[in-house]
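input
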Amino acid sequence: MATQTSAKSGSFLDNLGKIYGLYTGGFFAFVILLAILEQLGMDRKLIGYGFVFLTLAVYAIIGILSRTMQAGEYYVAGRSVPAFYNGMATGSDWMSAASFIGMAGNLYLQGYDGLAFVLGWTGGYVLVAILIAPFLRKFGAYTVPDFFSERYGGGLARFLAVIVLIVCSFTYVVAQIRGTGLIAQQFLDMDYNVAVYVGLGGILLCSMLGGMKAVTWTQVAQYIVLIIAYLTPVIILSAKKFSIPVPQLTYGSAIEQITALEQSMLKAGLADPKTLKAHATPFLVRDQLNYFLLILCLMVGTASLPHILMRYFTTPSVKDARRSVAWSLFFIFLLYFTAPAYAAFAKLEVYTLINKKVAIADLAKEANWLFTYGKYGLVKICGANATGVDAVVAACQKIAGHGGFLRHQDLAIHADSIVLSPPEIAKLPYVITGLVAAGGLAAALSTADGLLLAIANALSHDLYYKMIAPNSSTSTRLILARILLLVVAVAAAWCATWFPPDILILVSWAFSLAAAGIFPALVLGVWWKGATTVGAVLGMIAGFSVTGAYMVGTHWYKWPLWFGISNLSAGFFGLVVGFATIFVVSLFTKKPSEAVQAIDATRRPRGDAIIKDKDAEVAH
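output
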């Protein structure tokens, strides 16, 4: 039986190029078919339903076909994922709703200062490649808490790692489910609360039955959809505006035009110099200190998030782990290199509209997209939701001295609508809008799958199996993992219905929590054999507590900022406290045993894994 399973698996792995090549070709054919049907008069709503439900069906089929009851496949995909495809799956796991939906919106609203997110998230993979991923793969663990337990000799370090993992991953997954809700709400015309649970159903179908095995192959399929969806509209806009279908090359020209339009709006009295932030001018939204501290927190958080680190447990070897980090960077680069251009083209279209000096009463004719997104509370004009022309005309008439024309200060666009709206802003075919929705859904689903799996695995493997019932059978552990995944998913969806802060804020908090609670103990655990159990435990508690308290206090209780450092960069305090605590306490406590100090072996690329029985279990 084991031989037959292995042969089937080998056959699948040998034909990955053909399988995903056919899948990509089929997706292109589907998009072209819908484009033709749109020209023949197909209803827009049906096009939206087609994109959302067909892609969900494909992901669900992959998830069902990848079902497994083998622990090695459920937790680490059998350690058989080739570097190229693991890089693609990691890219998909990483391209969350924050990256796909929130990043371009943040760049639209903050201009130059929004680049902190691009630099931080991309730079984080350099830390992953140099400091962490290959060494964790050499260690041979299933999860990040596995490493903490073996390295720091006991259940307390594992338990604390589980707590940090759950808190930061849960915060992150709420943001992803919020993203799926926003997309389903807008393109299926559903109530937001209902849309959240529809998105949740898609998430569970992808991950519940097959664990990491199912999530891996689903994420590869999702990456193909999301990158096509993200690049297509901005390539069309670039060709339309500058006759060059390479937005990265025309981005500079778009910035020049935006700068000229900003000056034109000011001269015509269509913008308030107090509220207009020049797109290309640095440090208007955050000062230099907060700019660079945010980059630091995002970089370190990237290198600490368990759902990303666990992807490098799935490769066949340490060498493949290194190579998959390089492929991850490449696949992430494709989107991140495009995000600034996406924001610039969206702003160019909006500023062009304002400079036309359009009467408020005529907005439905010139820019009906404002009302499409306004009914969901994502666009406001003169302080009122743009639910209809009469509502915004009445709101603008209440403003003293308002001339009846759309001004920059009248228009408030929510960051989460910037990626979804440009196809409609530029009056592209609706099929492009549907394609973007499918891409955004793929991004949110792929990250939510990874996060929920990380939480469920930590609870079933690290907490239940390793600390409560070490003699439990494999089937019991996997059934429990699925039940826990369902419970956590429903809890996250319930939290998402509260309409929490912007996606990007939630994600930034998750990064700071991961950076403060995990990074110091993880890096020193690999690179300094003198780090002790007591030092690591106290460092994790101190760093995580300081960061959590600062975030909660400054956001909800209006504490004064320490040294002027923003809530989004709260992880900085936890990093300083965490590293200092581990270092000082380790100097004054008992040195680790010789067996624990054998961690040095993780830094030698050759040789067997440290936890050999894990690989043995996978192999059998």
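quick obs: Residues 430-468 form the longest helix (39 residues).
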